[in-house]
Give the backbone structure.
Amino acid sequence: MPRPWWTAFWASLGYGILLLGALVAAMAYYPQFAENIGKFKALAPLAVLKNLVGELEEGGLWAYVAGQQFFKGCNTLGTAAAVLFAAGAVAGEANRGTMEIWLARPISRTRLLWTRYAAGAAALIAPVFWTTWTIPLQMRIFDVPGELSYGLLTLAALHQSALLLAIYSVTFACSCNGRHPLRIAFVVLFLTTLQFALYLVEQLTHYSLFRLTDVQHFMAIAKDGLDPALVLPLVGVSALSLGIGWWLLRRRLPL
Amino acid sequence: MGGGGQGASEGVAIEARGLARSFGERRALLPLDLDVRYGEITGLVGPNGSGKTTLQRLLVGLLPPTAGRARIGGVELVGEGVAVRRVSSYAPGEIGHYGELDLEAHLRFLVAGREARCLDRALEIADRLGLPRGVRVRGFSHGMKRQMLFAAAMAPEVSVRILDEPTEGLDPSKRAEVLAILEEDLATAKAPRAILLSSHHLGEIDRIAARLVFLERGRLLADERAADLARRARRLLRIRFDEHAPRERLLAAIDRLGASSLGWQGSTVAIELACDDPRPFLAGLVSQKDLPAPEEIAYGRLSLAELYRDLYGVEGL
């Protein structure tokens, strides 16, 4: 297996295990949560959180699973992984002085870029799917009542992946022009954390990027399937960012 | 010696015409014409910052030129130069490395995109240079990392090898080994091959290069055969006079005797003779009783570095 894929494999495995750990803890806790949901709603300190618990109460098991796996797990761990995988993709080569040997081989920059992008994207997206697909098994293990189809879980993972891929792609484009992966990671993580904070402010919640992957949207997927009006723009952002990254790498000096 | 690829000029491995590169306002390489021939090692010489690395990066397509064109191994340099890098190999002067890889994994990375046998040849060269296989590259010394890049650049079966200071930082025995590998590579090549080798150690490069290309401040200063240069060095004479000696009269006398004055350095004048035998000139000079007697005469032991200093006033070689 070529080097970028090995690196991506191990990074993906580590991030996937973290995501799975968070999901297992959430699934094991579900019976208690279902019993005490009224108390949680009363204790919620922010109006936005109170609404969120209300949505979980109304939405039942699927709302809880979507909230735990996607809104909480993927939006936090997944975003961090997206930023960390992408920030060093090209800027890391410049930072450690390997840009020249990376580019000096008889391999086109288009191929170098695509290989690196695809490896990171696969590492980011694969755990979203495989951890999500373990949910039915976990429901059996933890005696969680109810049923969730693989079709619904897959659609939800697709929707979540579109957002993560957009964050990854924008960071990747920044990396194609940068020399300091840590600086890129800090800036993008700060911006995404700010977006998460916006979600928790009732008056500003609609301006948050993470509004696109909150419980309401996953409830809508269960009812109407994937919404192309949401997913296609995210895919478009990814494609545009990749194009910008390609343009930047083609102009890049080997320094 | 034939050309290496389709459309190659007869015997010319690297053909650059008006090749230039600027970084903003700074002109790193002024428009330059260069021919590097097959079957030869061409030395690219110049002090630090003279444009050697910029020229080599241009030739392998790592830097786009701001003007001019180049043909390497019969392949026109266009775009990002992938086609050129298929017929050439390059050992960068800047040592980048992936410290977490061991020698074999690192060489595999460096020869990616080459023919299947390339890794084995790179490992053979690395073994010959005494590089340890089981050690991670982060444990390598500066010189060992440079030898690793050298081994990777010497492995592919290509028409042109472009090597940026491959002996820099190596101990004398390893330098000698690297130079021996270069000579063997050219002698045993199955197809026409040329090597462009840069160094700022003229004394080292003149031992193996058939031709010397001299850069200074981005300008091509000279492009001469090493044998011609050696002959010029043999004809170089330095004479020290008293510091109050009449310089104008001395220069006029040198001119009358058919030699060329290359200029004064302190109270020493450098002179290029018209022939290999200095005796007629010296006899003529000392016979002129109105001129001061020389205090010191140096002849026949001047290096090429001294020749360049005297010819072009360039220090740092």
Notes: Confidence is low (pLDDT under 50) at residues 1-9 of chain B. The longest strand of chain B covers residues 12-23. The interface with chain A takes residues 57, 60, 62-63, 80, 82, 85-86, 90, 92, 94-98, 101, 105, 109-114, 149 of chain B (CB under 8 Å).
